[in-house]
Amino acid sequence: MSAPLLAIIGRPNVGKSTLFNRLVGGRPALVHDTPGLTRDRRYGDADYFGKPLRIVDTGGLDPEAASEVIGAGIHRQAMIAIGEADVLVLVVDGRAGVSSIDHQLANELRATGKPVFLVVNKIDHPTNDPLVHEFHELGLGDAWPVSAAHGRGIDALLEAICEVVDPNAPPPSEPEPEDLFDKYLSPKLDERGQPDEEAPQEEPDDGPLRVAFIGRPNAGKSSLTNRLLGEERSLVHHVAGTTTDPVDTPFSHRGREYILIDTAGIRRKARIDEDVEKIAVSMAIGQMARADVVVLVIDASIGPAEQDARIAGKIEDTGRAVVIALNKSDTISGEEAKTRLRDLTKDTFHFMPWAPVTMLSAQRGDGVDRLLDLVDQVALEHSKRIPTAQLNRFFAEVIEEMPPPLHHGRSVKIHYITQGATRPPTFLLWANTPDGLNPTYKRFIANRLRETYGFRGTPIKIIIKARKDRHKEDPNWRG
Description:
This protein has helices spanning 16-24, 69-84, 100-111, 154-165, 221-229, 275-290, 306-318, 335-348, 368-382, 388-401, 439-453, 470-473; strands spanning 5-10, 42-48, 51-57, 87-93, 116-121, 143-145, 209-215, 247-253, 256-262, 293-299, 321-327, 357-359, 414-421, 426-431, 461-466. By secondary structure, it is of the alpha/beta class. It has three domains: 5-165, Rossmann fold (3-Layer(aba) Sandwich), CATH 3.40.50.300; 209-382, Rossmann fold (3-Layer(aba) Sandwich); 388-473, 2-Layer Sandwich (GMP Synthetase, Chain A, domain 3), CATH 3.30.300. The longest helix is centred in the first third of the chain and has 16 residues, at 69-84.
């Protein structure tokens, strides 16, 4: 049985996203005093002493704005959330008082026949509790005074919601302190009691593959997300900046589970003026580290530009697997034009020739299945592990072909190589003089690893560790 879904509804700027963040923890939703900032449905998970809840945040509902394209889209998204939710939370602004929109929303939510909780937000102190009384005229029963920003009243609200969604559940109990640490493993230690870097590490549990769509504004990230999902999950509009919050959506395809992450368009820093866009861009960049695979979406009708190369560089720095998607390829006619686009893409991303490039059209659906195939392939490469014995046989051939360059007139000796981690593939080389292996030689090793083992679509990290020659450490050594 899936966890009950709680939908947060209200007019703009009453604190819905702040409440969402408070319930799910962290700051997964963008919060600012600009009306209409949340536009898509955002989902998160909460846990009230072992009782799971799913939370969906919605955009502010305003009848006057509903006549506009984006306003109508926000209204559609909120209506979908209301329809699929088990419990509804109407958030109102305790400081501003009751508004006509609050009355209209209360009537609409009451008509659904679902449990509705009236949450009066911005009640930061008990002295402000009397402000709650006027909201009883909305006819929704008890009003719950809270401060989403400070956490006041949140536990009482959650307890009441849990009693409605599961009235037969036992009362919550505090977990035993030691239970909080059971799921964490102590690091493996060597004989000196220090973390053992050579000990095999636990691989992360397999779960949904997190795929983030990153790119400049209007490249088609939201359109591509909607095409994959087969529904309007993210608003699409020609105005740059329609998507602000990152939007996480579960998705299944051919028996595999994914989480698709739609993000705000990333412009050059010099062109970002408003605080909202600065935060949105910062959150979009932050999604790279949360993803397993990043799809860099580019408008094929414009072609890749310097900003796309900057974004690709950030993706490589985070160590994520990457696929370059040339969207709107249906606008490119003629083989000559397509060849020019491929050449421009190759030149723009010359520093990551290992990244696969695909042409598609989110609007028509051309090439979308091929994109998912590439995502699956690079995810496998990203988590590939090569046995140490096999690596060292390979590396003996590499050194014979091209020994390390001299360092200050002395030879650099590499003792052995091992793979220390995956996601991204990370290789450790033990050498007598780590400083003697310059970036050029490390790139040579990475290229030879790719020639032999693939690693298409994933960056490779080479780390040099110091290890002195044994004959210098032990005068009795006869090796």
